[in-house]
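== Sequence and structure of one protein ==
=== Format: two labelled lines per protein ===
==== Data for this protein ====
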Amino acid sequence: MRTPDEDELCYPHLGNSSCRRIVRSHSASVLFHIILSFISVLTVTLNLLVIISISHFKKLHTPTNFLLLSLAVSDFSVGFVWVFMIFLINGCWFLGPGWCVFYVALGFISTSASVGTVVLISVDRYVAVCDPMHYQTKVTNNRAQICIVLCWAGSALFHCLRLNNFIENPGEFDSCAGECAVYVLPVARIVNVVLSFIIPVTIIVILYVRVFMVAVSQAQAMRSHVTMVTLQSSQKVNRSELKAARALGVVVVVFLMCLTPFYFATLTTGLGVKNISSYIFVICLFYVNSLLNPVIYVFLYPWFRKCVKCVFSLQILKSGSSEANIL
């Protein structure tokens, strides 16, 4: 028969070599499982709808939408990271060191690719708004796809190198049985913050400030009934491009709000927290961005709402449906 102390252990039969679980009431534990499961399912489902929509309908095969597709793939992957977080809800890891490596690597690579994709989206909008006459020649489907591949490959290579010791020696840094511990050298941690946050955010902010200035100039010109706006590029900006820039601007702002606390905490205090509650908060906020992105699309993109209707009504199974004008 187990003693109360043994009930607090992840592996009671291992005694003191086992990690201790986080003790919660049964109702609290069930509530946490339900919430995390709901977020995971919703994140996977909504991003899968984005992936299906852009992949299926040929009218949506544009450079901007390919970037949204890349963002959806990274967010879709994060949905599975939520699944692994459910296993850690009581502070015990039962899946073994191999799955621990997969969970950590998937989280880092997918979120890093997400950051890189948001940078590419900012560049895309900058060229579309600030240099509209050359947008079609500078930003093509092939170039967008190459940039996306390089973004994912770079993210995977960087984090595999950063987590090299952890990947080669899974479980080595666990202080007790039932832990999924990651050790990263302080230098590597700082480099990660610089490459995955400081530099990308600087680029994003600079580009969107420029886009915002052009948008303000365009709005002022329309109010004064001016048909041609004198900008640095000396060209009139297409209103649809401005509308797309504003919509994607919302994505960028939400992105910064969700990721900034995590990277700020990482830079100031290592893994960013002095207690488990703070750790859970910054991590959840970090990952919940992957749920918010497709929710934003629902409200800002009419074509996405049409695509969702086509998917649920099974119209995409009809012959020639990929040629439909969904815009």
